[in-house]
Amino acid sequence: MAKRKFEPKDYIQNGGFIFIHLGCLLVIWAGASWTAVALCALLYAARMFSITAFYHRYFAHRTYKTSRVFQFLMGVAGATCFQNGPLWWSAHHRHHHRHSDTEEDIHSPIARSLYWAHMGWILSKQYNKYDTESVRDLAKYPEIRWLQRYNVVPGIVLGVLTFVLGEVLAHTSPELGINGLQALTWGFFVSTTLLYHATFTINSLMHKIGRRRFETDDESRNSMILALITFGEGWHNNHHRYHASERQGFYWWEIDLSHYGLVMLKWLGLVWDLKTPPKRIYEEAAGVRKRTKTPGRLRQLQNDEEKAIDLTPAFSELNDSTLRGLPKQEKELLEEV
Length: 337
Description:
Helix content is about 60%, strand content about 0%.
């Protein structure tokens, strides 16, 4: 695949992304306060959880189940991150897993450049559209299609609310030293920009630096530091070895904040059936079992551009009777891919 060159209209078309970065310059006039910094940290944490636990682990990989109402609320929460809608996000991420670190990968630092993998691909109009077939399991819900169409609305509402909150606090608690402009600057522009680049490091740095526990078909790696910053996404090699698992920190010492949050939501009855790595994955990590190679016919299906809709959600909806009819090896493979 030829490398994509930037055109001026690419930047114009993605003006919102650039505008949010430029909005950080408002700190020159808005100043700072401990209250504003705390608001920035709070909204960063809440939205990092939304993008990792909801957009990534639910919409893209369907690693747990929830109700239809809470599914929509999770989509709204993820959309406040200004990383497009759940259909666009999931379609591109599923494509990444099918072609990780190959020429077909949309954001590989191995096949292309570190800058392209980090944010260059986002600025290219080449990826403004997405493969609807790969997310038909999600697109069957009209409310999710609506959210995809109006995906900027939740983020805009959040920005307005931060300004209103700052103004209210300026009048009711002036000792906090915050106002509307400062709250908007730190709570929305700065926190969103930090959120952008923290999540983008998974696409870029986590295929370049860190340790490899599993021999995957790509260059995915693990990093404790990035796992802390991204609420568990830094266990990227784990994830690429078994992306059907909700938890990405496979061991108790691998801190995975999004996993802990989802466990709490499970206690509340809002989510359920959180998938975990099977025994064979831990045996492989311990070096007592070699990875089973994918049978040729399944590999061909996975890599066939015309047929390869995302397999994870499709297979997750197979009933028990269907799975019982499969040979053990193929059943394990279907649960994994």
